[in-house]
Structure prediction request, 113 residues.
Amino acid sequence: MLAGCSSTGFKLPDWVPSFTTAQPEPAPQPPAKPRNGSVISDNEGEAILQTVDFRPGTSSATVERLAKRFGCTGSMGAGLVTDKGPVEVYRMKCDNGTIFMAQCELRQCRPMR
Prediction:
């Protein structure tokens, strides 16, 4: 057993230096590259720009027709952003650069504000 161990009840005097092993500093790691996105930087710092893969959903065609009524046309179509379920959110990139989003609950879709 080592002297100063709590199981022995023996405590070293204050004048005895303690010996510890120095741990090396970990090497700095480069920032992790996001799986589905890219890193952008400006004067304020860096940020991760996430992209969402296009996934068609049950109400994609309905959302595309709804978007057309609001003046949004896009070549890619409406993609499902959330998981499939009773309430789904769709996103469509318009040709004019804006984004049209809609929420569908039990296949009843309305635009999101």
Remarks:
- Residues 33 and 39 are 7 Å apart (CA to CA).
